[in-house]
User: What shape does this take?
Amino acid sequence: MRFIYLHREFENLNSGVNKKIDSQLRHLSDLGVDCEKFSVLNGDNCHFQTGPYAIVSKSVLIGKIYNIIGILRRESLVNIALSNKLPLLTQKDILYMRTPYPFRFIAKRFKEPRACKIVIEYQTIEPLEYKLKGNFWYLLLDLLFGNSIRKHSDAIIGVTDEITCYQLKRSGDPSKPHITIGNGIDVASVPLREPPACTGEALHLLCVANVSRWHGLDRLLRGLATYSGTSKIVLHIAGDGSELLHLQTLTNELGISDQVVFHGFLTGKALEALFDQCHIAVGSLGIHRIGLKEASILKAREYCTRGIPFIYGIPDPDFPTDFPYILHLPADESIIDAEQVLAFARKVYTNPDHPKKMRHYAEEHLDWSVKMKQLKKFLEVLAGENIGGINP
Assistant: This one.
């Protein structure tokens, strides 16, 4: 079996998505899978280099993408890359990709005879997400071509059961090979933090994200504005994103500028220092705005690996409901109760070993080595290299 990952490499090369893909490939390669990364790159990313572990990178360079015309041009080049690649693949090859844009020529390409298997990984229920973004052109395209793309794929992988079931239904074939594998993390690549003392005088919260509406930070800002206790609570936001300007405006309107620090995008030692400074991390608090009832958020896995307890506004299938280092908050528009967050911090900090215990959990349940063993077994059956049932 050969595993070919078709990837639109248009994001920051240090983004969570790119790190995830490189980790998936590396751990599959470590498990003996012949891996190739077939990349379609933005012209700005021409500094991209071939990754380790015999991953062969082949790229199609394109220009900048800012609007629907640019996206159409990009996807036409993805289509060209796909049409050139597919005839070269055999019955033992798996072409793997994240959710493709639902354009007509991609749907047409999927319908054509081919020897290889095409597997699509879904991270969300796209129409709900794009409705929130206001990208109604996407909804129309998905209505026209989305079902066909799902139908003519050979297998579906979702990061939650909710997502897997939705995509399977859209394919029109409940017997289509499928599996749910939650997101993972490369534990060894993330340092374990040194937690600060938690005296109760001050509580530092940290959100690391490409900030969007579904992070729900406005709920937390309103909670800080209504808090009247004696502890000083400071929220640190490390990252950029479409919601950042709104959050900065809201911070000023609520009169809490002294309680919110916008650091911008951070990485490396600067980010590690911020993790060591903060007591509690902030996971996604607004996933319900997309319409999802559960999620598998990459950042939650980083928080667990670094050993920082966090608050979360959505169930996550990779964490038990009684996981002591997560404070589950209502998945609605209610204001976050700052006193509840303070009480959570006081409780978890009574155990000075909580960072090590969180990391051990990540090693046992969240590491990509664990996740990719599941994926390898599934793909081997799909490629006819293993005998047994393909669905969990």
Observations:
- The chain has a mean pLDDT of 89.
- The longest strand covers residues 34-42.
- Residues 2-184+367-382 form a domain with the Rossmann fold fold (CATH 3.40.50.2000).
